[in-house]
Amino acid sequence: MPLFKRRPTEFAAPIGTLPCTDQGCRNETATACSYRDRRGRACEMAFCPEHWSMIGGIMYCRRHAGTISAMGPGTDPSALPELENRGPSLVSWVADEIGPEIEELLRGIARSTETVKTEPEVKVVFDHKRRRRWERSWKLIEPTGISLKVALTVNEDEDDALVDVRVNSNVIARGVPPWIARRRAGLGVGGQVDKDQRELFHRFFINHIAEEITAQRTADASLSA
Ligand SMILES: [Zn+2]
Ligand SMILES: [Zn+2]
Fold first, then answer.
1. Based on the domain organization, do 121 and 174 belong to the same domain?
2. Which superkingdom does the taxonomy of this entry point to (predicted)?
């Protein structure tokens, strides 16, 4: 018989004691964001239950909740971007917006032996100089391997709002989304102008992808003819 009865572990209600970082919120029930970047630095934001974001029962500030959900909750911590970097969330956001159209373009040019594969999470990719970039991709897969790849990427050592469009290894178009450009210029974001500009930005990417993959297929066909 043990001398002491083991006490059950009690669920600790996630109520903090810090002031909430949200502008205009006076709650002092905030908990610090759980995000740690790849250098081990901790986020200093703290939010109350009304303003925090939970992913898998873990509390994050809104920005880092975006990063974690873009990369998937099981991501290796050494792949997580530095605190201020919004690259993965932005890649994920644009990919969700134009992904269905990219899939359709790929299905349109696929040969009978090829299937379309969509990567649902942001991956870290290294270039030949070991520089990182965040990537969401769509591929045409043949029994022998990848025959074509379209990707949206943001480079770690560049502007974290600059999105590149890649077809295979070439960057064919790039741009900062207009809503970010407007915010940076101190202009208001929202309304019809914003909607139209978003649409233009998406068209710009889609049209370049369509042009490039058609050109590549034509070149392939003349090679094998
Ligand atoms: Zn709050
Ligand atoms: Zn955070």
1. yes
2. Bacteria
Residue 110 tokens read as 């696929």
Distance from Cα 36 to the centre of ligand 1, integer Å? 21
176 shares a domain with 132: yes
pLDDT, one tens digit per residue, over 11-30 is 655 678 899 999 999 999 99
**CA 71, CA 46: separation in Å to the nearest integer?**
22
Statement to judge: residues 51 and 95 lie in one domain: no
Report how far ligand 2's centroid is from the alpha carbon of 34 (Å): 7
Question: Tell me: the pLDDT tens digits for 49-99?
Answer: 999 998 888 899 999 999 999 998 788 888 899 999 999 999 999 999 999
Please check whether residue 59 lies inside any domain of the structure: yes
Q: 53 alpha carbon to ligand 1 midpoint, in Å?
A: 11
Is the CB of residue 89 less than 8 Å from the CB of residue 70? yes
